[in-house]
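lol ok so funny story. i was supposed to be doing the assay writeup but got distracted and ended up predicting the structure for this chain instead. priorities right. anyway since i did it might as well share w the group, maybe its usefull for someone
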Amino acid sequence: MDLFRLIPVSELPATVNRLKAAKDLTVVVAQGWQQDAPLALLLESLGRQGARVVTEKTLGGKVPEGDILFYGLPRTMAPFDRLPAAMAVADDRFTVAGESFSQADDALFLVLSNPDHPERVTGLFLPLSASAAAAAAPKITHYGRYSALAFRKGENRQKRVVTPRSSETTKELLLR
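and the output, tada:
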């Protein structure tokens, strides 16, 4: 039997392409980070030069509505509390698929579904240095179907798709 259906947005994996296609994208510059050339390069590469850019401090701990891209790990907001298995993020290191990255040449780009609004995505660009940001930023757009990207010296070392946690239309049947 063939079945054709439209897949609800909440069932689609959060990917770079979904962030690129976001209608209402807000870029949040984390405390201790600056709106700089690597961020401009990333937004240009993603085709999002016109996105609204705000600082974490101006938001006062409130997460903006819509799709969000964090530049640096936020301090007053906790959008990355529930990371997939074998993933972790900190200011100076991160782990993707069990592989740890902590060198100055490393950069992470991560896109997850917003747990409160599954039709929205939340992204994180976490370069561990300005040179890592400059090397990775123009390449991210070419990995549109992925959710998690780890780079070292601008070379992709990990690429993963993070699948949605649950589905309203999928039912598991146990046959005995």
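The mean pLDDT is 89. Residues 9-160 form one domain.
back to the writeup now i swear
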